Amino acid sequence: MLGSIWGCFYASFLRYWLKWFIRQVTGKCELQRICAGCKPGAPRTTRAEYSLKNSKSLVLRLALEVEEDGVDQYLDLIVREKNVKTQKDPTFKIHLKVCLLQITGYRNLFESVEELRKETFDSDKVEHEEMLLKLWDLLMPDTKLESRVTKQWGDIGFQGDDPKTDFRGMGMLGLTNLAFFSEHYTEEARQVLSHANHPNLGYSYAIVGINLTEMAYSLLKSGALKPHFYNTVSGRPELQHFHQLYCYLAYQFDRFWVEEKPASIMEFNHYREKFHDQIKIQLLDPAVGLILTGHWKK
């Protein structure tokens, strides 16, 4: 209770006068101090985002909604609004531009991911079918798929004879992540598949992969992935960066599963949540970067 009262008092009153006082002493606005005094990446961008969001200036608050092609113009508006002398602080606009690209890029990334999630797998679309068949070829290069609808799909962890039914929850986002992992980290993906087919510790590779897509999606939607992307992408995060994050989750979950040695697949939900909690703890680190280092293929 007292914490809530203090937080409200600080945000609505004390913070404004504290900022004013420090500016009188230093001659620099809060954004200038953040850009000059914080390390690039999440430490700087997170604080810049907080400053813009809680500013009493409409110009600064609207900076969070600017599109990429309007960033430069909006930087000039901020400079004028805060009366920044760029001759004395030549790096201010450079650093703040990176922050704005990361902040607004995160929002646009979620919109792109959401669009892909809502796209339903359609067997009549050639590109959808080609991606699915390519997934098989990448994971099972020595085994020919006998037909489009076959029990063989179970060998890579689908539930039924036709994988399209398994993509209902995450749409094309689920398939795209599976295909991206298999194409760009082929050796790692095949290693994970071999573990998934273990007689005792096995799990459904594709179904678990789609489940991990849901995990990545929920982390993105909640904003929990901001520190990761602010640290690993110097500018706008793109769809490929989200797919790379998925690859990290897929590989690390497999390691986690093997190390935990669950008694059976019936315990999946418990271990899935335990893994999820570990990832959320990692994301609290300002220096976090969930990058899978391995045999990356461009």
Number of strands: 0
Helix tally equals 13
- Portion of residues in beta strands equals under 5%
- From the alpha carbons, calculate the radius of gyration and give it in angstroms: 23 Å
The pLDDT mean sits at: 91
Main β sheet profile: none
N-to-C SSE series? HHHHHHHHHHHHH
What is the 3D shape?
A: elongated
Number of domains: 2
User: What structural class should be given to the helix and strand makeup?
Assistant: mainly alpha
The low-confidence runs, each spanning 5 or more residues with pLDDT under 50, are none
Helix proportion: 55-70%
Question: Oligomerization state of this entry?
Answer: single chain
End-to-end C-alpha gap: 52 Å
Structure description:
Pfam families: ELMO_CED12. The chain has 298 residues and is mainly α. The chain has 13 helices and no strands. The chain folds into 2 domains: 115 residues, no CATH class; 160 residues, no CATH class. α3 packs across α11, α6 crosses α8 and α8 crosses α9. It is elongated. The N and C termini lie far apart (52 Å).
Break the fold down into its secondary structure elements and pairings.
Elements: H1 2-26, H2 30-37, H3 42-53, H4 58-62, H5 71-81, H6 92-118, H7 126-139, H8 171-184, H9 186-196, H10 205-222, H11 226-232, H12 239-260, H13 268-282
Helix pairs in contact: 2-3, 3-6, 3-11, 5-6, 6-8, 7-8, 8-9, 8-10, 8-12, 9-12, 10-12
In short:
With 298 residues, the protein is mainly alpha-helical. The protein is built from 13 helices and no strands.
